[in-house]
Each structure stands twice: as C-alpha cells, then as structure tokens.
Specification:
The N and C termini lie far apart (about 130 Å). By secondary structure, this protein is an all-alpha fold. About 85% of the residues lie in helices and about 0% in strands. It has one helix at about 1-85. The protein is built from 1 helix and no strands.
C-alpha cells in the first residue's frame, strides 16, 4: 500500500506541476497580449493626437495669415493717408472737422 500511496502522490505532484506550468505560461501570454494591445492603443492615440494637432496648427496658420493680410492693408492705407496729407494744399486744417 505504501508504494501505491507514493505513486498517487507522485502523480498528484506531477499534475500540480503541470497545472502550475500551464498557469505560468497563460499568465505570460495574457501579459504579452495586454502589452501588445496597450502598445497598439497608445500608437493609435499618438496618431489621433498628431492629426488633431495638425488641424489646430492649420487653423491657427490660416487665422495668422488673415491677421497679417489685414495688418498689411492697414499699413498700406496709412502710407496712402500720410502721402495724401503731405501733398495736400496748405489750406487744409486737419484739426477742423470737414477739413476744407
């Protein structure tokens, strides 16, 4: 009977070892899959964030170009007014409304 108990104990130990190996392998596999999914998710977020940033930069660039164009128009108008004042007859008094 002692040999039989020893044989059953050996089978139980081997079965427990096999279960432990399977558990360890599955945990590693789950960890690997989780890390792979996390990497794909982070890469997707980086692409999405880059596209969002690109769009925001394009909108900012467009607004800046409009502002610069408006400033150029105002500057050119100032030059025209300055030249008009410089070449105007001396009877114009800019301090009076209506001018003439």
């Amino acid at each position: 009977m002692g040999a039989r108990v020893c044989g059953v104990s050996a089978v139980a130990v081997l079965a427990a070892a096999a279960v432990a190996v399977v558990v360890v392998v599955r945990r590693r596999e789950v960890r690997w899959r989780r890390e792979a999914v996390s990497e794909r998710l982070m890469a997707g977020c980086a692409v999405r964030d880059a596209e969002t940033l690109r769009g925001e930069l394009e909108r900012f660039r467009s607004r800046l170009e409009r502002e610069l164009a408006g400033a150029a128009v105002v500057s050119a108008a100032g030059v025209v007014v300055d030249e008009a004042w410089a070449s105007a007859p001396s009877r114009i008094d800019p301090s009076q409304e209506g001018g003439w």
